[in-house]
Amino acid sequence: MLNLTGVKPVLWNVIPNKFTIAKNYKSNKMKIEVHTVASTTPEKLWLKIKKFIEEEKIKTWVLVKSDQDVEYITHTPSGGQWYQKALIKDSVLTIPLRLVLTVTWFSNLPHPNEYTKGLYIGRFTEQLLEHFRTDLIKLETFA
Question: Does the 1-6+29-107+128-143 domain belong in CATH 3.30.310?
Fold first, then answer.
């Protein structure tokens, strides 16, 4: 996992020293809600997703940390079309129990348009279906 506090990694070379997250990410309605099977809690699934990213079984995504030490997932091909456009933040909701993946963005970069946020949701949904199908009951996406 990359920790961006106090360093200027090549991956984030256009962001000075550390990055900050837009404060209103919770008000953003674009998200995936992942309903898991009984044997997989949302927390276990999140750990499994992070492990697959760290082991590069999921190659086009990377874990990053904000200056407040909060983890996010972002699309990673350096210089690619979707590089440094948005972030995905996890949370867990109850009744019913589910993992929620919400699109947010960097506060010091241009706000992504709805198309870009939708692309992040779609691409990450692909990864969930490809790698974690047996852990899921259903996926819901919200615009």
Answer: yes
Are the CB atoms for 18 and 67 separated by under 8 Å?
yes
Which pLDDT tens digit goes with each residue over 53-107? 999 999 888 888 888 888 888 888 766 777 777 889 999 998 899 999 998 887 7
What predicted TM-score, i.e. pTM, was given to this entire model?
0.78
